[in-house]
Write a structure and sequence with these properties.
Elements lengths: L2 E5 L2 E4 L4 E8 L6 E8 L6 E6 L5 E3 L7 E6 L4 E6 L8 E9 L5 E3 L3 E6 L1
């Protein structure tokens, strides 16, 4: 059974930092692309950062240079280090895992990030 559990969200002032964690069970990172998405009120869910099974990364233009995605395969955990946070980063952040063969996606329950100005 696949399970993704996000943590690390909270309230932070603009310019601050947070590190989100996504603890995964039931999957092997060698066969999954892992992404962080976010959804702000009234907006569509958008991709923030992704790391492929081969270790390559990509970021949305809005977070490039501020956010970093990484994995700890020993802990089966994916991280999103968020620096220089802005009020527009406020959203619920979701962890996503997609099997590279079946393309079947799995989602976590989300963690709220609120950046105050």
């Amino acid at each position: 059974q696949v399970r993704l559990v996000e943590s690390g969200g909270g309230l932070v002032q603009a310019g601050g930092s947070l590190r989100l964690s996504c603890a995964a069970s039931g999957i092997n990172f060698n066969f999954y692309n892992i992404g962080w998405y976010r959804q702000a009120p009234g907006k569509q869910r958008e991709l923030v950062a992704r790391i492929t099974s081969c270790g390559s990364t990509n970021y949305s233009d809005s977070v490039k240079g501020r956010f970093t995605i990484s994995t700890d395969n020993a802990k089966n955990t994916v991280y999103l280090q968020m620096n220089s946070l802005k009020p527009e980063d406020t959203a619920v952040y979701y962890c996503n895992a997609v099997n590279t063969l079946s393309r079947f996606p799995f989602w976590g329950q989300g963690t709220q990030v609120t950046v105050s100005s």
